[in-house]
């Protein structure tokens, strides 16, 4: 079956009418959460288990292409429950448990209500369903199929150097710099935190910040909101563009008045509940599938990475100021069912042309994505907080989908 390109017929809407003019002056808000947020604790644990299976497969000389992990985590007061399906090396529960404790310790939880050493850990992992496996595995002339059906979106824009929307980009940076300060012993803060940034746009470009929200767990119970603000404000200002924060910017720091009890002791956490934080902060569509805890046969994860990779390279090549890419898949089917490109009226070439080029510039089968982006490695725990996108590519293959190595090829196609 051929790939359907939405809107690629002769009456392509891009070619038959002008794109609507986007709003130029508005406010837009995005939030982020720290690695100590209850849901992010669960994302981290689930991704640590994905990495563990890849590491152990390599140690035991097993084929990494055969690793399968779909791991869900629940965390509450001094209790962690892990459930899901796996295939690959046979790992003792004690090894998995130690991986979980190490992750909690690294995040920084040594509280009475949630402690890396004392938490009860229940492991409920079992073999992957044979019915699913037969659709995913390659055999004979059949290529590796997608691990599930679904739609995946990628997005990029030229609002920041990392080609991410400004609100989510700055919301992440605020919490990341505060985490670094906490870990270095420079700020008496706990691991759990949330941020929210409202960005003012003029002429379609970010020009300032009207509201800043930071709710941050603190180590000393008697600290006031004013004292917490005094502690965190220099770090927040250090990562925001000069002139974006003015006397008119409204700050909300620990607006409930106190944030001493945090993490899973304060609020139950689950894997996959922060999918908008993980992606574009609401500035772009989301297909609905979470990333963490899934090996790259799951196109929820790998195809979303591929879609970001394509969109980012389109913007980096100067072919558009903003670009959304949608891919769709069916379980057990290798080739994507469709590709859709939307440049929101900023494109230098038509979306139909981009769809043709992007579909063929790399292989968008699950195997093709995993090969091109080098995803069969333990690179996933680091993605579990501060966003899966807008990060620098690592030398070991982490965040490979952030590379802009398709720019020259794309420019050549549209020379």
Oligomer: single chain
* Shape call: flat
Q: Tell me the β content.
A: 15-25%
Q: How do the strands of the widest beta sheet line up side by side?
A: 1-14-13-8
What does this protein look like?
The chain has 415 residues and is α+β, with helices and mostly antiparallel strands. It contains eleven helices and 14 strands. It has helices spanning 13-16, 38-59, 93-107, 130-136, 166-183, 225-238, 275-278, 299-316, 351-361, 366-372, 407-413, and strands at 4-5, 26-33, 68-76, 79-87, 110-111, 114-115, 120-127, 150-157, 189-202, 205-218, 250-253, 269-270, 322-329, 338-342. The strands form four sheets. Strands 1-14-13-8 form a four-stranded mixed β-sheet. Strands 2-9-10-11 form a four-stranded mixed β-sheet. Strands 7-4-3-12 form a four-stranded mixed β-sheet, covered by helices on one side. α5 packs across α6 (225-238).
